[in-house]
Amino acid sequence: xxxxxxxxxxxxxxxxxxxxxxxxxxxxxxxxxxxxxxxxxxxxxxxxxxxxxxxxxxxxxxxxxxxxxxxxxxxxxxxxxxxxxxxxxxxxxxxxxxxxxxxxxxxxxxxxxxxxxxxxxxxxxxxxxxxxxxxxxxxxxxxxxxxxxxxxxxxxxx
Length: 158
Fold this sequence. Notes:
- This protein has 1 helix and 8 strands.
- The strands form 2 sheets. It has a 5-stranded mixed sheet, with no helix packed on it. It has a 3-stranded antiparallel sheet with strand order 1-3-6, with no helix packed on it.
- It starts with 5 loop residues before the first helix and ends with a strand.
- The protein is mostly beta strands.
């Protein structure tokens, strides 16, 4: 038998380790993922608010010569109901709508007008009922281009 020196044994072991390391499959290091910034949110411009505003809403049953309506908290069952809307500002083809709602939530009437103005003005929307209005509490709501405008008015029919 041949004797191997410790140095030779260590050299063979070191060479074997180096050979194994050299045979190891080189896998490419994955490139770091690019930093992605969140895209800016796509937002559509908000619809421009009409340059006109509702300054008052009045419920009554008679239109004066100056287009004003005296406010009434109680109307008769055969009365015409007038929703008087005072506006201020400029409007071109703006939809002004009024809706009457009965106490049970049922819509008693709904009408709209096209508003064209360059100053202050009054638009009166009339509701008539060929039958008598049912007695009870009502609410009048006004919108400009579908958005609530002015204060909700409550009144009673007796």
